Amino acid sequence: MEFLYEYGLFLAKAVTLVVAFILVVSTIVGVANKQKQGRGHLEIQSLTDQLKDITNYARQVLLDKGTLKKLAKQQKKEEKAKLKAKESEREDGPRLFVIDFKGSMDAHEVDRLREEITAILCVAEEKDEVLIRLESGGGVVHGYGLAASQLQRIKDKGLTLTVAVDKVAASGGYMMACVADKLLASRFAYIGSIGVLAQLPNFHKLLKKNDIDFEQHTAGEYKRTLTVFGENNDEGRKKFQEEIEEIHTLFKDFVHSQRKDMDIEKVATGEYWAGIKAKELGLVDEIMTSDDYILSHYPEREIYAVKYSIKKNVAEKLGLSFAEAAERSVMRLWNQSRTWFH
């Protein structure tokens, strides 16, 4: 029995050493790969080619052979005419670059947006246009403030910026959307919510009931106005409200600077409206889906989808999946309490 015990102990030590060695090697290889390849890569797809494939497939299924031959001849003539026009002008026509932005509460998607916009600005010319397909119910002030600044880079470069909202652009999402030269929305998209929300729980009574003391030390009169665990007072609440009002004023001023013809006081109440009503209030310019807008430029323009993909390890994927599930649950409850009809 003693031999078996010693043998088992030796085996456990050996396995531990082997596992530790494998983990060390894996870590070194992982770091080397990250340094070599980076965490993300840029993807550019031709939406023009995709639409051509869809069109050709639909024609082959729906049209007879005679009609298909006529269309094929017509297409050849059109392609030759385009090639001649390009050769004579010695330049390509205006292009449409498409970016998808689906923002979360913490606006972490801004990192990808930065890379995508930078890539476009490196190759785009003034005649080109950028379409942002935007979907966001808002989130943290600093995150969406930076996102709006990223969109401003497109305009500063002299490019036309169009934003299309198919579902929702509220609060910080609308802060982004209003930067556009042209703002589109579907008929029932949620638009607006130009307001500021701040809320936090307070556990002071619970701690007091269980004889638990809480201490907080600060330097500066307003370093901490409200606290989660301590006892809040009217002075702290007043200062906190003043800070919220100041942010709201900055929000309103920013939106008004982008859409000067809009009655900002009428729409900056924290309310949101369906796209058709939002157009009446001047929050959007036109009722149209992003799909219709893209098709309106096909086949005259070359259309490209630009996406920056970030590689994630297993832990990040699991964490992100959990966070997205939690956020979807919160948004689902919010929508159920605010939706106008079912």
Question: Can you walk me through this structure?
Answer:
The protein has 342 residues and is α/β, with parallel strands linked by helices. Among the domains are: 157 residues, Alpha-Beta Complex (2-enoyl-CoA Hydratase, Chain A, domain 1), CATH 3.90.226; 65 residues, no CATH class. The protein has twelve helices and nine strands. Strands 1, 2, 3, 4, 5, 6, 7, 8 and 9 form a nine-stranded mixed sheet that branches. Helix 4 packs parallel to helix 5. The longest helix has 36 residues. It is elongated. The termini are far apart. The C terminus is likely disordered.
Q: TL;DR?
A:
This protein has 342 residues and is an alpha/beta fold. Helix content is 54%, strand content 16%. Among the domains are: 157 residues, 2-enoyl-CoA Hydratase, Chain A, domain 1 (Alpha-Beta Complex), CATH 3.90.226; 65 residues, no CATH class.
Largest beta-sheet details: 9 strands, mixed
The assigned structural class equals alpha/beta
Count of separate DSSP helical elements: 12
* Nearest-integer average pLDDT: 84
Q: Name the shape in a single word.
A: elongated
- Helical proportion, percent range: 40-55%
Secondary structure: number of strands: 9
Fold-level CATH name of the domain at 40-54 and 93-193 and 271-311: 2-enoyl-CoA Hydratase, Chain A, domain 1
The CATH class assignment of the domain at 40-54 and 93-193 and 271-311 is Alpha Beta
Element-level helix/strand string? HEHHEHEHEHEEHHHEHEHEH
Measured by DSSP, the beta-strand proportion falls in 15-25%
The CATH architecture designation of the domain at 40-54 and 93-193 and 271-311 is: Alpha-Beta Complex
The whole-angstrom Rg is 28 Å
Please, what is the CATH homologous superfamily of the domain at 40-54 and 93-193 and 271-311?
2-enoyl-CoA Hydratase, Chain A, domain 1
Distance between the termini: 72 Å
Low-confidence stretches: 334-342
